[in-house]
Write a structure and sequence with these properties.
Blueprint lengths: L8 E10 L7 E11 L4 E5 L6 H8 L7 E6 L2 E2 L5 H10 E4 L13 H11 L5 H14 L16 H14 L4 E5 L7 H18 L2 E6 L2 H7 L2 E6 L2 E7 L3 H4 L3 H37 L2
Parallel strand pairs: 3-8, 3-9, 6-7, 7-8
Antiparallel strand pairs: 1-2, 1-4, 4-5, 9-10
Bound molecules: adenosine-5'-diphosphate (ADP) and magnesium ion.
């Protein structure tokens, strides 16, 4: 794919070192270079500890980088603070693995989605109620969900509510960090389908992080492969099988196959068990 436009986000030589007293320093990011283009979904894959979440937290300013630069629309945003940081945070929204971490158990879903609309003065407060209903509908939740508390929602529904809140402020970029990893396979698929659909509708740029290459490949245009704090390779998602060169990428690809095989075997086993149970039922009258 040819990208004629300028990147919306650029990471230049990004380094992050964690120094903990009494521990060896950890280089969580080592000179990371990446570009995200308008409308693109950039996947990031790598095993646990490879630096994916650190990258996400640096980009969203939850963490300060040690060195290097983050550029947003050709502006240096590496060391923002105060109101500039607040405004920047609106542009790059983040969806985490654990939705429960960002809910207040006493705040209903409607108010949860409405909050940033009011804080960022996206619209007049009288209009927000209507907007919340519109957002709920867009993520496949019923209007009645607005009146529910977080614990009354399933994991998949919670993640939909978080996505509704994120798209509500009309950000330029949404960053998903293992956003579907805690969900059952079928629910995970529904959320992935939702993301693909939303992207078609809104053209929002996104960074989709997961340890699971098969999942990343489903939603991404390009995939950056991280290994021990470095981006070792960036490949076009559709060309993964032919153009992945790095041995680590190759090893991730084989583990994808083995996961598929495992799922297939588990399914077979379930079917066999069901047949046995069925037969036992018949035989026991
Ligand atoms: N707050 C922290 N303090 C110290 N070390 C950290 C911290 N967060 C992450 N690390 C370390 O940085 C490395 C990258 O972690 P992380 O970005 O969470 O990886 P991933 O999301 O790919 O699993 C790991 O070695 C991890 O132990
Ligand atoms: Mg992580």
């Amino acid at each position: 794919m040819a990208y004629e436009r300028l990147p919306i986000l650029e990471l230049k030589n990004l380094c992050k070192t964690y120094e903990l007293k009494g521990h060896r320093a950890v280089d969580a990011l080592r000179a990371v270079h990446l570009e995200l283009y308008p409308g693109e979904c950039l996947g990031i894959v790598g095993e646990s500890g490879s630096g994916k979440s650190t990258l996400a937290r640096c980009v969203t300013h939850l963490e300060r980088v040690t060195s290097g630069q983050i550029q947003y629309r050709q502006q240096d945003i590496t060391r923002l603070n105060g109101n500039a940081l607040r405004q920047q945070r609106k542009q790059i929204q983040m969806v985490f693995q654990e939705p429960s971490a960002i809910f207040n158990p006493r705040v209903k879903i409607g108010a949860f989605i409405r909050e940033p609309l009011i804080n960022y003065k996206i619209m007049k407060s009288q209009q927000t109620e209507q907007e919340v209903l519109r957002l709920l509908e867009r993520v496949g939740l019923s209007a009645a969900t607005a009146d529910k508390y977080p614990h009354e929602l399933s994991g998949g529904e919670q993640q939909r509510a978080v996505i509704a809140r994120a798209i509500g402020v009309e950000p330029d970029i949404i960053l998903f960090d293992e956003a579907t990893s805690a969900l059952d396979v079928s629910i995970q698929q529904q959320i992935l389908d939702l993301l693909v659909e939303l992207r078609k509708e809104t053209g929002i740029s996104s960074i989709f992080i997961s340890h699971d290459l098969a999942v990343v490949q489903q939603v991404s245009d390009r995939i950056a492969v991280m290994y021990q704090g470095e981006v070792v390779e960036v490949v076009e998602s559709s060309q993964l099988a032919n153009s992945a060169n790095h041995p680590y990428t190759r090893s991730l690809m084989t583990s994808v196959l083995s996961v598929r095989e495992m799922k297939y075997k588990m399914q077979k086993k379930n079917e066999e068990q069901e047949q046995v149970q069925f037969l036992q039922k018949i035989l026991s009258g």
